[in-house]
Amino acid sequence: MSLKVGIVGLPNVGKSTLFKALTRKAVDISNYPFCTIEPNVGIVEVPDLRLAKLAALSKSKKIVPAVIEFVDIAGLVKGASEGEGLGNKFLSHIREVDAIVEVVRVFPNEKIIHVHNTIDPLHDQEIVETELILADLDTVTKVQARLEKEARGQNKEALAKLPVLKNIEQALALGKLASQAVLTHDETTKVLIRELTLLTMKPILYVYNVADVSKPLSPELEKRPHVKLDVKIEEELIEMSAEEMKEMELTSHLGDLIVQAYALLGLMTYFTTGEDETRAWTIRRGSTAPQAGAAIHGDFEEKFIRAEVIHFTKLLEAGSWSAARDKGSLRLEGKEYIVEDGDVIVFKI
């Protein structure tokens, strides 16, 4: 399963530096707006201490972690929804990702240009989100005009979608994100949301780029889902060994961001383990056992019979797969079983 997290924000807030720290890829990091034009893309491993423990238990030759894809998108400026800066190109790149990490500058530094010449995190967030809302309003207006025309011809699908669309439009007109609109979870709503691909329907995680991660933020910033990072320090840490970091009492907080971004996408992990490898498999929360099997191969879903399941904690307690079976800790689950994060599974097909 390949899902993308887009890194967005105003110019010069640390987006490309964060991307470099996350992916260890060399990217253009310059002290001027729009040094990133085409998105940089990188695959990032999801840190998971459970993998090493399971691999030790199984004496695995290889460990394969879960991964997510990060996309470094060009800086947005006020007026982007009307074509300012990279405008429509920027917005189209956001449309292609599944979730948004919005980098917000909190640190002061006179040597690094701020596009508005002042450090005001709340104002910066407002600019970014206003542009996304305006772009979504434009999308909704165009779709509404089409649906109203079809509804006049008594098109049942259009008649069902229009009330949902108007709810979304009202939220956007009030300056709210589309994700804050009060909507039902029926099939018509789900289909319309998929068709609209609204920017503000995507989940958002804020990365506050700070000079001191131990310093509290303002209550207004704290209440939003966020991670605090000193992005410049994180970039420097990728050049250091674990021993050097320990000696200097330095800790990276990138793992917090990666894990939260993974959860933001609605993802979770189950495991397979054996002598050849211990592997983390990525699935959506709420997946059934056959759907989870499809992460390995389509046949595992189509030809599913049952699954042998044990939570990783119980497997570690037992000490081995055979000991877990002898203790009766293994469960046989059928097609309706909803996989839990941390399950270790053997599929029978």
Terminus-to-terminus distance: 21 Å
Largest sheet: 6 strands, mixed
* Assembly annotation: single chain
Major sheet strand order: 2-4-1-5-6-7
Mean pLDDT: 88
The low-confidence runs, each spanning 5 or more residues with pLDDT under 50, are: 27-37, 83-87
- Helix % is 25-40%
Question: How many DSSP helices?
Answer: 14
State the order of secondary-structure elements, H for helix, E for strand. Answer: EHEHEEHEHHHEHEHHHEEHHEHHEE
Our Rg estimate from Cα atoms comes to 23 Å
Query: How many β strands by DSSP?
Result: 12
- Assess the beta-strand content as a share of residues: 15-25%
Structural class: alpha/beta
General form: flat
Note down, in words, how this protein is organized.
- The protein has helices spanning 15-23, 49-58, 87-95, 121-152, 156-173, 187-196, 219-222, 231-237, 242-247, 254-264, 289-293, 298-302, 312-318, 321-326, and strands spanning 4-8, 40-45, 62-64, 67-72, 99-105, 204-209, 226-229, 267-273, 277-284, 306-311, 331-333, 343-348.
- With 349 residues, it is α/β, with parallel strands linked by helices.
- The strands form 3 sheets. A 6-stranded mixed β-sheet has the order 2-4-1-5-6-7, sandwiched between helices. A 3-stranded mixed β-sheet has the order 3-9-8. Strands 11-10-12 form a 3-stranded antiparallel β-sheet.
- Helix 1 packs parallel to helix 8 (231-237) and helix 4 (121-152) runs antiparallel to helix 5 (156-173).
- The radius of gyration is 23 Å and the shape is flat.
- The chain starts with a strand and ends with a strand.
- 35% of the residues are buried.
- The model is unreliable at 27-37 and 83-87 (pLDDT under 50).
